[in-house]
Specification:
With 143 residues, the protein is mainly α. The protein contains 6 helices and 3 strands. The protein has one domain: Orthogonal Bundle (Arc Repressor Mutant, subunit A), CATH 1.10.10.10. Helix content is 64%, strand content 8%. Strand 2 and strand 3 form a beta hairpin. The protein starts with 7 loop residues before the first helix and ends with a helix.
């Protein structure tokens, strides 16, 4: 069996493993990794007003896809949506108090996966890996 091409295939395989672990950790909360990503994004926005359009732009999703995500999250009690007071054509999205449990689970799984991924690496090797991955990301982002 031949080795996958670097870096794309390895990055893809690593991402699949990370997503599978995150999905398993979030399943008891009734969430998927993709849904938790949306919640984490809302959390990073702090007190900034976040609209459906903001979410679509950030994740590069079409309006109907964002609406579907939000309906499921609203049904589960993780977000609320309301018509914007500034622009009645827009809907504003806010996190509920239920988010704190998602945040705890995501922080725990990220810490666990980071520790698993770093097993057997020295600090110097991890520093180099971080630098290399950062460069790969920059190279891809520039194209």
């Amino acid at each position: 069996m031949s080795s996958p091409a670097f870096p794309g295939e390895y990055i893809k395989m690593i991402n699949i493993q990370f997503m599978a672990h995150a999905d398993a950790a979030l399943r008891p909360l009734g969430l998927t990794c993709a849904q938790s990503d949306l919640l984490m994004y809302l959390n990073t926005r702090g007190d900034q007003q976040t609209t459906v359009q903001d979410i679509g732009r950030h994740f590069r999703l079409k309006h109907p896809t964002v609406i579907g995500f939000l309906r499921r999250l609203e049904d589960k009690g993780f977000v609320t949506t309301a018509v914007s007071e500034r622009d009645r054509r827009c809907r504003v999205v806010k996190l509920t108090g239920k988010f704190s449990e998602v945040q705890r689970v995501m922080n725990d799984i990220r810490s666990y996966l980071d520790a698993q991924a770093a097993r057997g690496f020295s600090e110097e090797e991890m520093s180099s890996l971080h630098n290399y991955l950062s460069r790969v990301y920059q190279n891809i982002s520039e194209s």
